[in-house]
Design goal:
The complex is a heterodimer of chains A (902) and B (112). By secondary structure, chain A is of the alpha+beta class. Chain A is built from 29 helices and 25 strands. The longest helix of chain B is centred in the last third of the chain and has 25 residues. Classes of the chains: A alpha+beta (902), B alpha+beta (112).
Chain lengths: 902, 112
């Protein structure tokens, strides 16, 4: 008798079981323990292990039975699963079927498909670019991780007891506020002041650059903001005097590929003691495009503080700084703001109340995220967004998409007549309406997706040009941007389904009997809808064209309007107020004046269109009190006002022969005279004034001239003679201007070799102020053009189908003797009527809209009828051309051919 | 052992009833039925386990493994709410059939 080993037996049994595919290892485990339970019980009853094992195995059931039982279950499961995959395969095949048929249908009519796809693609490209622009604009300053606690300070003076308008606050303030803000308010974690609206000269050996994009910054800069410091210690990089941090671009400029860290840059010109060595203590990434704080170079604020008189940093009246505030987490900005009134009063309140009129100083916190978009007056740190532009462009984008979508629907519906027979046949052989609808929707979605793809490619290609044009830095690589892809796919799907729903409904509703009988006419409801859609398209286009014309008219007006001073042939030579030049001021002026081709030279700190400061100025008013305002100030030499050619309405200009003119004389413009209470400018003469440490008399009043762009009304302006100027103004003869400029350069290099020769033309500078508007107008024009193109595409498609539909009618008419011209007129007139209706609706809308826009300009054109006539005429003309091709083709067709087929 | 048709038809209801008393495992269920039937009904392991596979696929019961210290792991089964509902339904059906027999054969009225 062989020895029986229970474990071996069970193991063998188990292995045998495992061979069956239908029995999983879990099942086998279950069966094994069942076996062991049985064996254990049998052995308890007295059987031997071998007997127990044999009985248990038999009790479990014959292997064959086990096998068949488990296999049953197994195959049921498989069948169920296969049903699922079958189902999926079937559905997939259906979709593939729809797509194949859709592609086939679309290829049958390549012209129609092309028009549809291109119209939609243009619309989507537009929308995509505008969408990117809007998103970019709204994303400004959001990269700062502490953004929710970050604010900037805004200030405004008002007459005592009044509150300023929200848009009236200015961000340009004094340096004294920040330190006491930090000590007096426990909620404030840190403050950062930024300053630097002047140009400075930096040099490394012989290499010098006039830097305009630099800022002085407090040492907390890198703690508060999220600008990335690549090298250097963020805590100390801006702590010491003479510390400078360069962006990568700036570092490249001065050091090329060398390591800039620890190197020295000199500030200022060679031969004065303004020498100041800056040590490069940090290199940082270039400022991102969507930051309103833009700069190439940072210099420690303490460098600035050490160099200048105390009052510049201690007086609340000296204005040259932008202040940013970081609150502690959990601190409430509202609570902080609520304390501002008391805060400002404790430092400035009483002093302001002694003025005439008594003033109050208001302060406000503005969240960082709103800084770019919020309307802010006065001097700004960096670029400013324009929310109304965003709305307008957003609307245009939607309009264009609307037009494209309307096109889509129109063309698809128009095709319905063609496809009526196809639908009739399919229905007659049993196709369900829902299946037909799904088919047509698939076609629509397919077109939309192809259009979206093309739009993506177009947008990517156009992005650099778009960026250059708008001056933004929208990052490219759109196909890698999941947000863009998702939005495009979603839009394509929605547009496809929305625009395709109506045609799908119409098409699938056809009654097969009616259609196949041939008595089919397109429903009047459908025609009416199609016509109204065309009206809408052209209406929108007309509004856009009219708007573009008006914008350009206004621009041209602003550029050509007489400004009240001589701006032609005036060369502005900017030396940045360099002290070496100032010391030799008269000598340099002489030298420049002697250059052939130069008529006149003078000097000033400010030129029209450029930066000029505001100066707290008190002038005696008619009742004898000293009234204070903050008019703008030009600091000039004796010859400047004359060279500008500004007219005097009272009094006289500064006279070099009169000694007191350089210290006790003030000249104001008419607007200033009115502000101080003098309706008659002559009455202001001889009145006392106090301004920036000087007292004296008003000696002259000039006629108002546009010292700022025509976007602003003329503000009060004052003039004073000053030693500190920053620019030379050179009037040149018209002949041989390039030669004059070259000669000036030679002379400049002799008299001021350490300063770069930076010149510009006053009129060009002034025009640059309109850059925003010009851009706006151009963009408007582009979109208007696109809208019309899309509308025309639609009209063309429509005309094609209508012409086809009426082939028989045209044939009959021809046989009965109608002339070609008469036929063309017949076919075209219908469409022209539509354009006429569109015009009637669009013109008042455009008129209203443009009047609104124009009212924002103090100096504007009058809205004339010619704009609307041109817009309407242009639309009619374009519509005519579009329709004419089809009309002529239909009219010249041989009637035999048209009447031959049923 | 009763005819296959009967054992088959009643098996699910019996399993559900046993599991409604609490969680249980295969071997124990077979033993219980054996005792309840006075030795008349002895289910084959394969039949029970495959039945319970199917019941699990229909979401009438759940299975889970229990591993006790030093022992092999054992698959337990418990009834689901859906299974409890099915049990109620099947109970009613069996009782109505039972009711017919009671009246035909003059037996005691059935337990409700």
């Amino acid at each position: 008798m062989s020895t029986f080993h229970l474990e071996n037996a069970i193991r063998t049994w188990r292995q045998f079981l495992g061979k069956e595919r239908a029995i999983s290892s879990d099942d086998a485990e279950e069966l094994e323990i069942h076996l062991r339970d049985e064996v254990a019980e049998l052995m308890e009853r007295g059987y031997t292990s071998e007997e127990a094992f044999q009985r248990a195995v038999k009790q479990l059931g014959s292997y064959a039975v086990l096998q068949s039982d488990y296999q049953n279950v197994y195959w049921t499961k498989v069948r169920a699963e296969r049903r699922i995959t079958d189902e999926l395969a079937w559905r997939g095949a259906m979709i593939k079927n729809y797509l194949t048929i859709a592609i086939r249908n679309l290829r049958k009519r390549p012209g129609f498909t092309l028009i549809n796809v291109s119209g939609l693609a243009i619309g989507l490209t537009c929308c995509l670019l505008i969408g990117l622009f809007v998103v970019h604009e709204l994303s400004y300053d959001r990269f700062h991780s502490k953004q929710d606690r970050l604010h900037r300070l805004k200030y405004q003076y008002t007459a005592s007891g009044e509150q300023p308008d929200p848009g009236d606050y200015r961000v340009w303030g004094s340096a004294a506020v920040a330190p006491v803000l930090k000590t007096d308010f426990p909620e404030v974690e840190a403050t950062v002041r930024l300053s630097g609206q002047h140009t400075i000269l930096l040099r490394r050996g012989d290499l010098s650059f006039q830097e305009e994009n630099y800022l002085f910054a407090d040492s907390a800069f890198f703690d508060v903001f999220d600008f990335k410091l690549l090298r250097g210690n963020s805590k100390t990089a801006l702590a010491e005097p003479g510390s400078i941090v360069l962006t990568e671009t700036a570092a490249q400029r001065y050091f090329g590929n060398e390591d800039p860290l620890g190197q020295t840059l000199r500030f200022g010109s060679n031969n004065t003691d303004d020498q100041f060595n800056y040590t490069v203590n940090g290199i940082m990434e270039d400022t991102p495009a969507n930051s309103h704080i833009q700069f190439d170079i940072l210099i420690s604020m303490i460098s600035f503080e050490r160099r200048v008189p105390d009052y510049m940093f201690q007086s609340w009246h000296y204005v040259d700084f932008f202040t940013y505030v970081l609150l502690h987490p959990g601190a409430s900005p509202q609570a902080v703001e609520a304390k501002f009134a008391d805060f400002t009063y404790s430092y400035m309140g009483e002093e302001l109340l002694t003025l005439n009129p008594p003033l109050t100083f208001h302060m406000k916190l503005e969240p960082m995220a709103e800084a770019y978009m919020a309307p802010t007056g006065g001097r700004l740190l960096g670029p400013q967004g324009n929310p109304s532009h965003l709305y307008i462009f957003g609307s245009i984008g939607l309009f264009v998409l609307l037009i494209a979508g309307i096109n889509f629907t129109n063309l698809s519906t128009a095709r319905s007549i063609e496809r009526a027979r196809e639908v009739g046949v399919r229905k007659a052989v049993g196709a369900e309406r829902s299946a037909l609808m799904r088919q047509f929707l698939t076609e629509a979605a397919l077109i939309a997706f192809v259009a979206a793809l093309i739009a993506l490619v177009f947008a990517e290609m156009l992005l650099p040009a778009f960026n250059a044009f708008t001056g933004k830095g929208i990052p490219s690589g759109l196909w890698m941007n999941p947000g863009v892809i998702l939005t495009m796919a979603g839009s394509a799907l929605s547009v496809g389904l929305l625009a395709g729903a109506y045609p799908a409904l119409v098409l699938s509703s056809y009654h097969p009997v009616h259609v196949l009988k041939g008595a089919f006419q397109s429903s009047t409801g459908g025609t009416r809808l199609r016509k109204s859609l065309v009206v809408l398209q052209f209406g929108i286009s007309i509004v856009l064209i009219a708007a573009t014309l008006v914008v350009f008219q206004q621009l041209r007006f602003m550029q050509n309007e007489t400004l009240g001073f001589e701006k032609e042939q005036q060369i502005v030579l900017d030396f940045g107020g360099d002290s070496a030049v100032l010391q030799q001021r008269s000598a340099i002026l002489d030298a420049l004046g002697r250059v052939p081709g130069v008529r006149e030279v003078s000097a000033s700190r400010s030129v029209p269109g450029g930066y000029r400061p505001n100066a707290g100025t008190s002038i005696e008013d008619p009742s004898g009190d000293m009234l204070q305002h903050g008019p703008q100030l030009f600091e000039v030499d004796f010859g400047f006002i004359d060279q500008l050619g500004v007219e005097f309405v009272a009094g006289r200009p500064f006279n070099a022969a009169i000694a007191s003119d350089s210290t006790e004389a003030l000249i104001i413009n008419e607007a200033a005279a009115r502000a101080f209470g003098y309706a008659n400018p002559a009455d202001a003469l001889g009145k006392r004034f106090e301004q920036w440490g000087r007292t004296g008399e008003v000696i002259g009043v000039v006629k108002d001239f546009h010292h700022e762009s025509l976007q602003k009304a003329i503000e009060p302006l004052t003039f004073r003679w000053a030693q500190y100027v920053e620019k030379f103004l050179i009037k040149a003869n018209t002949e041989n201007l390039p030669q004059t400029i070259a000669s000036l350069e030679t002379t400049w290099r002799q008299v001021a070799p350490h300063r770069p020769y930076l010149y510009s033309f006053l009129d060009a500078d002034f025009e640059a102020l309109y850059r925003d508007e010009t851009q706006f107008g151009s963009l408007f024009g582009i979109f208007a053009g696109l809208a019309i193109i899309i509308a025309c595409l639609g009209l063309f498609g429509l005309a094609t189908f209508t012409a086809q539909q009426r082939t028989k009618e045209v044939g009959v008419r021809k046989v009965l003797g109608a002339s070609t011209f008469g036929l063309v007129r017949l076919l075209a007139v219908d469409f022209l009527k539509l354009v006429g209706v569109a015009f009637a609706l669009a013109a008042p809308l455009a008129y209203f809209g443009m009047t609104e826009w124009l009212s924002g300009f103090p100096y504007r054109i009058t809205l004339g009828m010619e704009v609307f006539v041109i817009a309407g005429g242009l639309s009619v003309f374009i519509a005519l051309i579009t329709v004419a091709y089809q009309a002529i083709r239909a009219a010249t067709a041989n009637p035999v051919d048209s009447l031959r087929y049923e | 052992m009763p005819a296959k048709a009967l054992t088959g038809a009643s098996a699910q209801t019996i399993v559900l009833s046993i599991l409604s008393e609490g969680e249980n495992y295969g071997y124990e269920i077979i033993k219980r039925v054996y005792h309840l039937s006075g030795g008349q009904v002895e289910w084959a392991a394969g039949s029970l386990y495959t039945l319970m596979h199917r019941m699990k696929a229909h979401d009438l019961i759940n299975s889970f493994w229990v591993e006790k210290e030093g022992e092999r792991r054992r698959r337990y089964y418990r009834i689901t709410p859906k299974g409890a509902e099915a049990l109620e339904k099947e109970k009613k059906e069996w009782l109505s059939v039972h009711g017919i027999f009671v009246q035909l054969w003059g037996l005691q009225p059935s337990l409700s």
